[in-house]
Specification:
The protein is built from 16 helices and 31 strands. With 742 residues, it is an alpha+beta fold. It folds into two domains: 367 residues, YVTN repeat-like/Quinoprotein amine dehydrogenase (Methylamine Dehydrogenase, Chain H, 7 Propeller), CATH 2.130.10.10; 303 residues, Orthogonal Bundle (MetI-like fold), CATH 1.10.3720. Strands 6, 7, 8, 9 and 10 form a five-stranded antiparallel β-sheet that branches. A four-stranded antiparallel β-sheet has the order 1-29-28-27, with no helix packed on it. Strand 27 and strand 28 form a beta hairpin. About 1% of the residues have low confidence.
Length: 742
């Protein structure tokens, strides 16, 4: 009966252990699958679906715009009339002319004929429509989408503001090309156009309102300069400081018009290749110039400023060409994406920062030149004749790619490609930077400096306690060190950031003295102890000399701190931080890798110590006794017999400490300044993957790009830890097989 019960209990225990093991493995696999599932959508491209078409007559290609909710579509006709179509019932709800009626001719006593629009355009952010007339004027008007709620129903009301008309050519001749920029508040504008007489003219207008009297004063400035021969394209940045153009077979022009077109002088000319430039546009923010050419090529250009050199218009990246000449490029109003349309009827959706072609294909009406992106970049409008096609676009994460996550990227405003983490900014045109490389480097940097301290102290301390210390002292020391592992990391981080960091900044020369003097004083104390007669040393228990060494180290530490300022004045000219910057060019930040190494070392040492001590203690006593019996001394026995035998366990201890350091969050979060800097300088801060997740996840919109990139960071931590532990287990097994025969 008892045997049967014992067998049942053993079988149940075996089932429970097996179920527990399978459950643990299943949980780890489930975590891995979940992390992968949350990360994979980052690699998806765009999905495009044609929803249908509606009639929309009387509108010219190149002037389409829509409201953020896609309830209305506006466009400008050749007759100068802005028409707004309500998509719900396909009704034109607004018709408003932006070109004033021509004044009657008093000599002929008849009305002058109407001046139709020669060319039309739309603001890059969809804030205005504009057109040039046959008599040398440019007319433009802001289009506003006013939103109100009636109960729970959202109502969008399109409003076309009063038009402005600017006379560019006093001779009333048609303008070849023109570019228009307006200030965000509508108080100023800049018009640049090529006149029929071959002059490039610029008109700058300013509208000022007296806050006390309400009087409005309008003024304008006019500049002109000879126009380059064969000018075909003009585009202006949003701040109305830079003007870009295209001439001839692939030449780009750049004027700095901040102080006026005349003051800009001759334009700077840059070759874009042998193929003619057929389309130009500026991306959101007005820093990136997108160039389309007759051979279907697309490229992005920046004005790059480097120290000691003049700013240069630089080709940053090239995209995979499309089939056919680029007819029109439409920038996104939301991010750094853009849409390109070819004369062959192909459409491509691209993103500048991530250097991705998200989608490419044919759409109904493509090639007619009437194409627009919706303000939220979730749809495309195409005008072909009198039909308006509506296309849905699902494009969740265009701003990241594997290359942008791990390789250098040339960001706007930078003088070279760099790896940067900066997930948010102060303006809507901010370019998110999601490089994980600085975080990986920071993780390895913090781990390296902490293990640099923890491994020698943990392993050698465990060796001494296990092999040399008296058992009575060991029963006190070992539990004390192991209890240190229970210290909350937030407490260690708090002490490191607010107590240790400022003191270390003030007394860093003392730390240098300690590293130099401690080996000397320990060796000196050892000689002193050995010089004591054996009969006197025998009075003290074996291993009690540790008290002497602790006292000597404490006295040495006090002496180093006391001599810190004198040593700093003698060796570093009075200031270690100043000497460091002048000599090496390295800055000294108060919260740096040295502080983290000391604080995280305190957290990792107990783990390495406990596992290593068990490995030393588990070496069979027969091996130790046999070595001593053959004439080896205690040190020879420990280093040549005990240490090799315990090496698998010591290696496991180091790997466990590595895993603890890699996953540490609070210490690095509170003691490093949390700056994602990519270098190995021990005197500045860094940011780790785990700390980055803790900082960013509260602000990450669910299922957004940042949200999924943080899951990718968690997956990287998982993979790094898993790979290191797997490699460690393989090495441990090899060591066990090698030294298991001792």
């Amino acid at each position: 009966m008892w045997a049967r019960r014992r067998a049942l209990v053993d079988r149940l225990a075996a089932y429970a252990v097996t179920a527990g093991g399978v459950g643990i493995i299943g949980s780890i696999l489930a975590i891995l699958v979940f992390l992968v599932a949350e990360m994979v959508p980052l690699l998806y491209g765009a999905r495009v679906e044609v929803k249908g078409s509606v009639p929309f007559a009387g509108v010219r290609a190149g002037s389409l715009m829509t409201d953020p909710y896609r309830t209305h579509v506006a466009g400008l006709g050749s007759d100068g009339v802005v028409r707004v179509l309500r998509l719900r019932d396909q009704r034109t709800v607004v018709e408003q002319s932006i070109v004033p009626d021509p004044a009657p001719d008093p000599e002929l006593a008849v009305d002058r004929p109407a001046r139709p629009l020669v060319a039309v355009s739309v603001g890059r952010s969809g804030e205005f429509v504009a057109g040039s007339t046959a008599d040398g004027r440019v007319a433009f008007a802001a289009v506003d989408w006013r939103v109100r709620f009636v109960g729970q129903q959202r109502v969008v009301e399109p409003v076309v503001d009063a038009a402005r008309v600017v006379t560019v050519d006093p001779q009333q001749k048609p303008l070849s090309v023109f570019a228009l920029g307006t200030s965000p508040d509508g108080s100023g504008y800049t018009v640049v156009a090529e006149r029929a007489d071959g002059r490039l003219a610029m008109v700058r207008g300013l509208r000022e309102e007296n806050e006390f009297t309400g009087e409005v004063v309008e003024s304008d400035e006019r500049f002109e300069t000879p126009s380059p021969v064969g000018l075909t394209q003009l585009v202006m940045d949003e701040e109305q400081r830079n003007l870009f153009g295209a001439v001839g077979a692939g030449s780009l022009l750049w004027w700095d018009i901040d102080s006026g077109l005349g003051a800009a002088g001759e334009p700077r000319v840059v070759s874009a290749g042998s193929s003619p430039v057929t389309a130009l546009t500026m991306l959101l923010g007005g820093r990136s110039l997108v160039v389309g050419q007759a051979d279907g090529s697309l490229s992005v250009w920046f004005v790059v400023s480097r120290a000691g050199t003049a700013p240069q218009l630089t080709r940053i990246r090239d995209f995979e060409p499309l089939d056919g000449a680029i007819l029109r490029i439409v920038p996104s109003q939301r991010d750094k994406g853009f849409l390109a349309e070819t004369a062959a009827g192909r459409v491509g959706l691209f993103y500048s920062t991530s250097h991705r072609r998200l989608w490419e294909g044919a759409l109904p009406g493509a090639g007619a030149g009437g194409i627009a992106l919706t303000p939220r970049a979730d749809g495309v409008l195409l005008l072909s004749g009198d039909r308006l096609s509506i296309v849905d676009v699902r494009n969740r994460h265009p701003d990241v790619s594997l290359a942008s996550l791990f390789m250098p990227v040339w960001y706007e405003g930078y003088d070279r490609p760099e790896q940067v983490w900066q997930s948010s900014g102060a303006t809507d045109d901010f370019e998110p930077k999601y490089s994980l490389t600085p975080l990986l480097v920071g993780t390895l940097k913090g781990t390296f400096y902490s293990l640099l301290i923890a491994i020698p102290l943990g392993v050698l301390g465990a060796m001494y306690v296990s092999q040399f210390m008296h058992p009575r002292l060991k029963r006190v020391i070992k539990p004390t060190v192991e209890i240190m592992a229970a210290l909350p990391s937030v407490v260690l981080g708090f002490l490191a950031g607010l107590w240790l960091a400022p003191r270390l900044e003030r007394l860093f020369p003392a730390l240098i003295l300690m590293f130099a003097m401690f080996p000397v004083v320990i060796i000196a104390a050892g000689f002193v102890w050995e010089s004591v007669p054996r009969r006197l040393r025998g009075v003290f228990p074996t291993g009690s000399e540790v008290v002497l060494f602790v006292g000597v180290l404490a006295l040495g530490a006090w002496a180093c701190v006391a001599a810190s300022h004198s040593f700093e004045a003698l060796a570093f000219g009075g200031s270690f931080q100043t000497w460091l910057m002048q000599t090496t060019g390295l800055p000294y930040d108060q919260r740096n890798a040295v502080v983290v190494g000391l604080a995280m070392g305190v957290a990792v040492i107990p783990i390495i110590f406990a596992v290593s001590e068990d490995a030393f203690s588990n070496v069979p006593r027969e091996l130790v006794s046999g070595s001593l019996a053959l004439g080896a001394n205690r040190w020879q026995t420990v280093t040549r017999v005990v240490l090799p035998t315990a090496s698998p366990g010591i290696f496991s201890a180091i790997m466990i400490g590595f895993g603890r350091a890699v996953g540490e969050t609070m210490i690095v979060l509170m003691a490093t300044g949390n700056t994602p800097i990519q270098d190995w300088n021990p005197f500045n801060g860094f940011r780790t993957l785990s700390a980055n997740i803790a900082v960013e996840i509260p602000e990450a919109p669910q299922f957004g790009t940042l949200y999924r990139v943080l899951f990718l960071a968690a997956l990287l931590l998982f993979v790094v830890t898993f790979a290191v532990n797997t490699a460690a287990e393989l090495v441990r097994q090899r060591l066990r097989q090698r030294y298991g025969r001792l």
